[in-house]
Amino acid sequence: MNELEHPTGDPYGAKDGKDLVSGITVFPMEPHVPRKADIDPKAARRAERQVATMFGLSSLMIIAFVVAFVKIPNTSLISIPIIGVVNANHIAIGFTFGLAILLIGIGAIHWAKKLMPDEEVVQARHALTSPDEERKEVESSFKRGAAESGFKERKIIRRSLLGALALFPVPLVVLLRDLGPMPGTRLRETIWDKGIHLVTDATYKKIKASDIPLGGLINAVPENLLEVEHEEENLNQRGKASIIVVRMDPADIVSQQGQDWDYQGVLAFSKICTHLGCPTSLYQQRTHHLLCPCHQSTFDLSDSGNVVFGPAARRMPQLAITVDAEGYLVAQSGFNQPVGPSFWERG
Amino acid sequence: MSTTEESILAPAQTAPATKGGAVAAYIDDRLASASFTKRLLDKVFPDHWSFMLGEIALYSFIILLLSGTYLTLWFNPSMTEVIYNGSYVPLKGVKMSEAYSSTLAISFDVRGGLLMRQIHHWAALFFVAAVSVHLLRVFFTGAFRKPREINWVIGTLLLVLALLEGFAGYSLPDDLLSGTGLRIAEGIIQAIPLVGTYVAMFLFGGEFPGTDFMPRLYSIHILLIPGILLGLITVHLIMVFYQKHTQFPGPGRTESNVVGFRLFPIYMAKAGGFFFVVFGITVLIAALVTINPVWMYGPYTPSQVTAGSQPDWYIGWLDGAVRLTPNWETSILGHTLSWNILIPALIVPGIMFTALGLYPWIEAWATGDKREHHLLDRPRNAPTRTALGVMSLVFYMILVISGGNDVIAVAFNLSINQITWGFRVLLFVAPPLAFVITKRICLGLQRSDNNKLLHGYETGRILRLPSGEFLEIHEPIGEAERAKLLAKADVIPLELPSAVDENGVRNPKAAKSIARAKLSQWFYSDVIPTPTDAELREAAHHAEHELHQAQSHLKEIESH
């Protein structure tokens, strides 16, 4: 810790102009070249004035900041070239505050660079290794302590202690148990079921096939999502049960995940990407491709929702649909597979 | 520290003459802090612009603590649903979480709130950037070598924690963009074999998104990770202080000294001033350049997403890796292994950070270099290390750019499929190329250094001799430049041990040492030796002769 331990100032030493450690040539320090302010009192006074001006301006900026904070309403807008229309209060207080701080910094650095001594100083490094005797002393102290404790000889104490210490974290882990429920079958189920109406995502209106134009897409949720009143459960169910409903020319449908799962070219698929769970949203009418905006997994909805590109490994689950007596779209059954990202137990 | 001669009554010391002296005496009477304080005030730090990178990281962290504390006064990390009724008109009447509505309140209803949010976000971006560039500086100059390996590991941990902390903060406002990020994080956790589903359920208190996670993430973001960061940063600084800073080679600089300026007053003013400069610039940028305008994204709902979603820059490489990995998934005995997620999100980052943390030992093992190093390497003088660094950097940069493959596709009107495939190929082709090119550049620069040492620098003055011959005048380089160029320790690769000992018996340990020696020879391949003293003398003599010749030619021309 103390460089005074090496009064010669050189624990490694340099010999014959070569550094003993690295063998590189050591050159003498270059002579100090005085700055203008060192020799010219005028230049020094100028530097002094510059520093003081910056500190003074900083104080003024703080006053301006307080005035701006109090006087400029938080709702007033101002138009600034390049930046555009912005909150005047925000800009004014940010500008004055930032400048005030910046001026302190620049002033201090200017002071150091122009007026404080700029002659470099040499300091010796201290050895980062302890002398051998000290290491030996530590070793013997440790051995003495270890012998006094009897840790080595008293096997039964040692083993029982190690056992107790090994078990001591168990409660700390067990106490975390109620952080959340066991997975159970949660990830496999949605609230879709036979006869549940498809309703629009935002307004919860039942959908007729004729509501969707050819090539069109509607975001939908199960009608019984409305019955899930508990906020948290509602959000979670929405995260799983959201679907997209598309309508294409029945002749364009190459394949489906089940026979007659469409209704006159209207197909329903999970909206939740099978890769990492983003809601897929970009649909290309012409190719019937559905693209996930997060990692660009692409699914072909006219061909069983198969993956045609990107990192998703599984096709988009299809929801079998039909219509009720009044012609509204309903589910034939729930999803026949888990929706969303894969997980270890999915199989 | 001897107590034998001390009186048990008041110490017989001279009374301090000034008020400041009295305060110092009061403290010293209780802590015996004089010797430490003296060493602190006199401590010498070397000067170089690149040593400020770590300072920027430290100061950004302090700005983060300050602005973050301010934000906690208004932010409410609750998922309770509210109807927004604040002053941002476009969202009036919209259902949202309290987390999001309190973020809007900070942005629109609290005076200076938006400024603090912007300062916090900008400082976070600067923090991770400064940590990263500081890491590069330490790597490329070999500052991680003995005795500083432990501090390198602490630095690596700080980087990992900084990324986690940044991501946690980015996720808290519960806007549409951050919610999408969390959804992806939850999907990644679910993909962990065996325990993934359980970890996800426990973290989120059930299924995604639930209402438990946001408050939990908040404690992690404002208490747990900053606490660890603060502790590790303190250790990091104490070690820099105790081991003393490394320095670049130059006149008067050796392995056993430190040349620079004292802490008091020079660095007190310079480093202290620099804190205000970093803070001031952060505030000005926060005032003038909008970042993360969460009000434009709207509240999070699990069934919506915006196209062109981009995370903060430091998560980009992970996002890119996830985008590039092909859709591999295997099913074993009824269990799913999602390689498409495990490889980019856990395995590759795991390998990258482990290799980063262990690099000082890997290099020391390969080179057999057990010496202490306080003089920094110029990157060109460690060509293999520099090439490895640039190679890794290119790998990382391709991942970052891949994270914006959709943005690139839209901007340049290209096919996203082709771009993704292009990056997949580049990821494996470009890094080795970068390695070779960088190493060649380093060796070329070393040769040019040797030329400068031997023949001086080219002045650009061309002489035409009466004979019609052209001659460029070379001038010897200055002493400072010489000191810098000559500060290149010659390296000795490990020797290949023979597979059998002197009695012809097979050495069972030979395979390992042979592998090590081969690695060492690879690491030190293409060594360009520094000119010897004799060569330098000879060259100086030669140069002097040439200069004389040129001068006499000049005289001759003038006299004509």
- Main sheet attributes: strand count, strand direction, barrel closure of chain B: 2 strands, antiparallel
Given helix and strand content, the structural type of chain A is alpha+beta
Straight-line distance between termini of chain A: 60 Å
Mean pLDDT of chain B: 91
CATH superfamily of the domain at 190-346 in chain A: Rieske [2Fe-2S] iron-sulphur domain
Largest sheet of chain A: 5 strands, antiparallel
Q: What's the total count of β strands of chain B?
A: 8
State the CATH architecture of the domain at 190-346 in chain A. Answer: 3-layer Sandwich
Q: Tell how many strands the DSSP assignment of chain A holds.
A: 16
Q: How do the strands line up in the largest sheet of chain B?
A: 1-4
Number of domains of chain B: 2
From the structure above, extract its key features.
heterodimer; A: 347 residues; alpha+beta; Rieske Iron-sulfur Protein; five-stranded antiparallel sheet; four-stranded antiparallel sheet; 7 helices; 16 strands; extended; disordered N terminus; B: 560 residues; mainly alpha; Cytochrome Bc1 Complex, Chain C; 2 domains; two-stranded antiparallel sheet; two-stranded antiparallel ribbon; 19 helices; 8 strands; 62% helix
Explain briefly what this protein structure is:
The complex is a heterodimer of chains A (347) and B (560). With 347 residues, chain A is of the alpha+beta class.
Write up this protein.
The complex is a heterodimer of chains A (347) and B (560). With 347 residues, chain A is α+β, with helices and mostly antiparallel strands. Among the domains of chain A are: 36-114; 190-346, Rieske Iron-sulfur Protein (3-layer Sandwich), CATH 2.102.10. Chain A contains seven helices and 16 strands. Chain A has helices at residues 36-39, 41-71, 88-114, 132-149, 155-167, 169-174, 231-241, and strands spanning 14-15, 18-19, 77-80, 84-87, 121-124, 198-200, 217-222, 243-247, 266-270, 282-284, 289-291, 298-300, 306-309, 318-319, 321-323, 329-331. In chain A, strands 6-7-8-9-14 form a five-stranded antiparallel beta sheet. In chain A, strand 1 and strand 2 form a beta hairpin. Chain B has 560 residues and is mainly alpha-helical. Chain B has two domains: 43-297 and 305-377, Cytochrome Bc1 Complex, Chain C; 442-559, no CATH class. Helix content of chain B is 62%, strand content 6%. Chain B has helices at residues 19-31, 34-42, 52-72, 98-108, 113-140, 149-171, 176-190, 196-204, 213-243, 263-288, 294-297, 316-324, 339-367, 383-402, 405-412, 416-455, 479-486, 510-523, 533-559, and strands at 44-45, 81-83, 95-97, 257-262, 330-332, 335-337, 457-464, 470-475. A two-stranded antiparallel sheet of chain B has the order 1-4. Chain B has a two-stranded antiparallel ribbon with strand order 2-3. In chain B, a hairpin with a 5-residue loop joins strand 7 (457-464) and strand 8. In chain B, helix 5 runs antiparallel to helix 6, helix 5 packs across helix 10 and helix 7 packs antiparallel against helix 8 (196-204). The longest helix of chain B is centred in the C-terminal third of the chain and has 40 residues, at 416-455. Chain B starts with 18 loop residues before the first helix and ends with a helix. The chains are: A alpha+beta (347), B mainly alpha (560). At the A-B interface, helix 3, strand 5 and helix 7 of A face helix 5, helix 7, helix 8, strand 4 and helix 10 of B. Strand 5 of chain A pairs antiparallel with strand 4 of chain B.
